[in-house]
C-alpha cells in the first residue's frame, strides 16, 4: 500500500500519513529499493485505531497510546487509557456536583444599581470580612472605585455573593463553590447555565461512547500486531 492508499480512506493528506509514521503513531514502514514507503494492512489498522482514539481521548493522549503500543509497551498504553478514563470520571463527578448545587439554590432576585461592601454585608447578615475572604477565593470580583478605592458590587457581583451565601449555608466548601460560580459567571446567570450543563453532559456521554469505539479499534490493532520478541533477542 502507498501513503495515498491510507490517506484516501480518511480524507487525509499523504504528508499526514508520513507525519504519523515519523511521530511513532504508525509502525515504521518498509522501503522499496528506490526509497518509497510501503504500508500494509497493519498500518491501515493502526491509523484506524489512532483516529478512533483521538475522538475519545484527544490528539495528545491518542498519540501517547499509539507510541507506547508501537514500542511494545502495551502496559504503558493501558495505563494512559486508564488515566484518561479517570479524568472522564472526575469530569462526570464535577458535573453531578454542580447540578446538585443548582438544585439547592433558591431563586436569586434581580439586583439593580451598585452597592458597597458594608450595605451588602448587612443585607445578607454576614461580616464584610467574609465578603473579602470570598473575593480572595475568587467567588466574587467587585470592581474598585477609581477615586476612593472602595469595592463596588454590580448586579452580577451581588448575584454571585447571594449564590455563594446560599451554598455556604448549604454546607458547601469554598473550593466546591468556586467552580460553580465560575460556571454561572461564564454562562451569564443560573438559567443559561442549566442549558450549558445539559450540553456538558451530552459531551461527556459522547466522549464516553467515543472511548468505547477507540478501545475496540485499538483491540483490533493489538490483535494484528506480531508478538514482541523476547528480551535479549
Blueprint of the fold:
Blueprint: H1 3-10, H2 14-22, E1 30-31, E2 37-38, H3 41-57, H4 59-70, H5 74-103, E3 115-116, H6 117-124, H7 128-136, E4 143-144, E5 151-153, H8 155-169, H9 174-187, H10 190-224
Helix pairs in contact: 1-2, 3-4, 3-10, 4-5, 5-10, 8-9, 9-10
Domain HTH merR-type: 1-40, 117-183
Protein name: DNA-binding transcriptional MerR regulator
Keywords: DNA-binding
Strand content: under 5%
Q: What is the CATH top level name of the largest domain? A: Mainly Alpha
Instruction: Label the overall shape.
Output: elongated
Distance between the termini: 30 Å
**What CATH architecture of the largest domain would you give?**
Orthogonal Bundle
Helix content: 55-70%
Structural class: mainly alpha
Got a strand count? 5
The ordered string of helix (H) and strand (E) elements is HHEEHHHEHHEEHHH
CATH topology of the largest domain: Multidrug-efflux Transporter Regulator, Chain: A, Domain 2
Q: How many distinct domains? A: 2
Structural commentary:
With 233 residues, the chain is mainly alpha-helical. It has two domains: 3-100 and 208-224, Multidrug-efflux Transporter Regulator, Chain: A, Domain 2 (Orthogonal Bundle), CATH 1.10.1660; 107-201, Multidrug-efflux Transporter Regulator, Chain: A, Domain 2 (Orthogonal Bundle), CATH 1.10.1660.10. 67% of the residues lie in helices and 5% in strands. It has helices spanning 3-10, 14-22, 41-57, 59-70, 74-103, 117-124, 128-136, 155-169, 174-187, 190-224, and strands spanning 30-31, 37-38, 115-116, 143-144, 151-153. The strands form two sheets. The protein has a three-stranded antiparallel β-sheet. A two-stranded antiparallel ribbon has the order 1-2. Helix 3 (41-57) packs antiparallel against helix 4, helix 3 (41-57) packs antiparallel against helix 10 and helix 9 packs across helix 10. The chain starts with a helix and ends in a 9-residue tail after the last helix. The model has no long low-confidence stretch (mean pLDDT 88).
Amino acid at each position: 500500500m502507498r501513503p495515498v492508499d491510507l490517506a484516501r480512506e480518511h480524507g487525509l493528506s499523504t504528508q499526514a500519513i508520513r507525519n504519523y509514521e515519523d511521530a511513532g503513531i504508525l509502525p515504521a514502514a518498509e522501503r522499496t529499493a528506490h526509497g518509497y514507503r510501503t504500508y500494509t494492512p497493519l498500518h491501515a489498522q493502526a491509523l484506524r485505531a489512532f483516529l478512533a482514539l483521538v475522538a475519545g481521548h484527544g490528539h495528545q493522549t491518542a498519540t501517547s497510546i499509539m507510541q507506547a503500543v508501537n514500542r511494545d509497551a502495551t502496559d504503558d498504553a493501558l495505563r494512559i487509557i486508564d488515566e484518561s478514563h479517570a479524568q472522564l470520571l472526575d469530569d462526570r463527578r464535577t458535573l453531578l456536583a454542580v447540578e446538585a448545587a443548582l438544585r439547592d439554590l433558591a431563586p436569586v432576585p434581580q439586583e439593580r444599581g451598585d452597592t458597597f461592601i458594608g450595605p451588602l454585608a448587612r443585607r445578607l447578615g454576614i461580616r464584610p470580612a467574609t465578603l473579602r475572604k470570598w473575593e480572595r477565593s475568587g467567588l466574587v470580583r467587585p470592581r474598585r472605585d477609581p477615586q476612593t478605592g472602595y469595592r463596588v458590587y454590580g448586579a452580577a457581583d451581588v448575584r454571585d455573593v447571594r449564590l455563594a451565601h446560599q451554598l455556604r449555608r448549604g454546607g458547601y466548601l469554598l473550593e466546591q463553590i468556586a467552580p460553580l460560580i465560575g460556571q454561572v459567571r461564564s454562562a451569564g446567570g443560573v438559567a443559561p447555565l442549566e442549558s450549558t450543563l445539559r450540553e456538558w453532559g451530552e459531551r461527556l456521554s459522547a466522549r464516553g461512547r467515543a472511548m468505547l469505539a477507540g478501545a475496540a479499534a485499538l483491540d483490533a490493532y493489538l490483535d494484528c500486531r506480531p508478538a514482541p520478541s523476547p528480551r535479549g533477542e
